[in-house]
Amino acid sequence: FKGKQKKDLRQDEKRFADVGGCLKAKEALLEIIEYIRKPEVYREIGVRMPKGVLLYGPPGTGKTLIAKAAAAEANIPVIFSSGSEFVEVFAGLGAKRVRDLFKQARALSPCMIFIDEIDAVGFHRGSASVMGGHRESETTLNQLLNEMDGFQENDQIIVVAATNLATSLDPALLRPGRFDHKIEVTLPSVEERRDIIKIHLRNKPHSASDEELLKLAKIMEGASGADLENLINLATLSAVRKRGTQQKISMTGDDLIQFALGQKQTQTQQA
Ligand code: ATP
C-alpha cells in the first residue's frame, strides 16, 4: 500500500514540462533555486541571495503551478499557505501562524514557502482597504517582514508569494531583501495557449493535429491556463457522455474546435 501511495504522489507531481509558456518566470525561479541549493558558491562571488519572489498576474495563469514545478525540479519541499489563512479575527493569531510557518520552514530547509493571495496580508498600510481598523492584518504583515528580515542565506529558504493585485501591495514588502524579485505572469499568447492545450491533452485520447490545435488556441483568445485546462476537461467529459464509457473515445481536432465554439457561444449568450 505504501508503495502505491508513493507512486501516486509522484504522478501528481508537476514539473516544468507541465507548465506551458511562462518562460521568464520559469527561468527566474530556477536561477533563485540554484542560489538556495548552493549558497556558498554565490557567497564566494559576493552575490546576495534573493529572499522572496513575487509572482503577479491574472487568476489562473499558473502562478501556483510554476512555484510547485520549480520546487519539484530543484527537489526541495514546498510549504503551502495562503494570505487569507493569516488574517484572523483573533488578535495575534495571524502573526503566530506566520511565526509557525517560518519555524516549520527552518526545520525543513532547503525549502520553499509559497504564500498565495499575499495581498490579504500585504495590502498597502493606510490604504482605503485597510483603513477602518484592519490592525490585525498589519500585525501579521509586520511579523512576515520580521521573519523575512531575520532569515539568513544559510537558512536556505525561499519565499514565493502570488497575487493578482500587485499594485495594492505594501511597498515595505517589495523592498530589497524581501520580495525584491517581481515576476509578471501574463495571460498566454496564442502559441503558449496551444502548448498549454497540448499539455492538458497529453493523457487524453485525441487525434488533433498541430494545425487544428493552433486554430483552437486562436478561438480561445483571452483564456488563461486554468480556462484551457477546464475546456479540455469539459470536452473530454462531453465526448465520454456522447459515446458512453464502454466505447473507446478519441476526440478529433474538429470535435475540440466545435466544443470550444459552442462554449464561447454559451458564454456570449450568458453575458
Ligand atoms: P490564482 O491567481 O487564481 O491563484 P494561479 O495563477 O495560481 O491562479 P494556478 O492555480 O497555478 O493559477 O492554475 C490552475 C490550473 O490551471 C493549474 O493547476 C493547471 O492545471 C492550469 N494551468 C494554469 N496555467 C497553466 C500553464 N501555464 N500551463 C499549464 N497549465 C496551466
From TrEMBL:
Main location: membrane
Cofactor or coenzyme needed: Zn(2+)
Cell compartments where the protein resides: Membrane
One GO cellular component term noted in the UniProt record for this chain: plasma membrane
UniProt source species: Halteria grandinella
Membrane topology: Multi-pass membrane protein
Family: Belongs to the AAA ATPase family.
Keywords: ATP-binding, Hydrolase, Membrane, Metal-binding, Metalloprotease, Nucleotide-binding, Protease, Transit peptide, Transmembrane, Transmembrane helix, Zinc
Example GO molecular function: ATP-dependent peptidase activity
UniProt GO BP: protein catabolic process; proteolysis
Residues of the full protein shown: 101 to 371 of 394
Span of domain AAA+ ATPase: 49-189
Protein name: AAA+ ATPase domain-containing protein
Claim: Transmembrane helix is one of the keywords in the record: yes
